[in-house]
Amino acid sequence: MRGATVKAAEFDEIAPGYDESRGGTARAAGFAEQLAPLLDPARPVLDIGVGTGIVAAELTARGHTVHGVDLSPGMLSRAKARLGARVAVGDACRLPVRSGSVDQAVSTWLLHAGPDNRAVLAEVARVLRPGGRYLVIPAGGTRPTDDIGLLVGELEDRLDPEGSRRDGPEWLAPIGAAHGLVYEGTASERPTSFRVSPRAMAESLTRGLFTGAWAVGGEASRLVDETRSRLLALPDPDVPRVRETADVVLVFHRGT
Ligand SMILES: C[S@@+](CC[C@H](N)C(=O)[O-])C[C@H]1O[C@@H](n2cnc3c(N)ncnc32)[C@H](O)[C@@H]1O
């Protein structure tokens, strides 16, 4: 429970600047464009880790009825302004929802953010009706393979050797299968690119936002410091790299 409280406080703190710092409406609209064709507009959608509701609002604008759950009251107060009473504070690992009652659920950029992916997928399997769908947009997208991406990828592996915060299909498919969630594959892929310098990346690691500040302490701090130094030692650390990645939707359904 303490862990959940820490995570909620971290997101409460970044809630005021969250939308703009993560790509604003353009990111949310892009995700909604990817998700909407995979959802049945006649049935409600549960957005698990709804955050500020920015993606849910874009789905609503495309004709979907979206309910949201999130751990952070600060993030959720913004979602409430967008979605009204259809949001509730709740833990993705213990959803305040009846077993077998959900037709379709989505999570965008949730599973890297702290909740144990095994616990979340077990809970999603519990609340989905047989045949119900769970759509995931991982925060990792596909990993960039430039010099920054290689160092950061190595850090992610070292910070989370058990893979509890990993959200790629190679991690989630077998976990889902263990809980009766069938991984159908990747349904949508949207190439994207962004620019960041090694120094800017090193600074975001320092602030802890990249990895989740709750993950940084003790040995984790040492690993982050080491990666910062290696980033700053790259050639031309102030020159932004164009980093190629792709946003993907992973599709799961609850087996019958
Ligand atoms: C990176 S944000 C993404 C928010 C939103 N889905 C979006 O794409 O804009 C991650 C969200 O997950 C929430 N979160 C983290 N752990 C959670 C948990 N155990 N249960 C519910 N929400 C959680 C955080 O409070 C935060 O709002």
Automatic annotation (TrEMBL):
Domain Methyltransferase type, by residue range, is 46-135
| Keyword terms, alphabetized | Methyltransferase, Transferase
GO MF terms here are: methyltransferase activity
Q: Superkingdom of the source?
A: Bacteria
Question: Which GO terms are recorded in the biological process aspect for this UniProt protein?
Answer: methylation
Q: Which SUPFAM superfamilies match?
A: S-adenosyl-L-methionine-dependent methyltransferases
Task: Extract the InterPro entries matched here.
Answer: Methyltransf_11 (IPR013216), Methyltransf_Superfamily (IPR050508), SAM-dependent_MTases_sf (IPR029063)
Provide the E.C. number(s) assigned to this enzyme. Answer: 2.1.1.-
Concerning Pfam families, the annotation shows:
Methyltransf_11
Record protein name field: Class I SAM-dependent methyltransferase
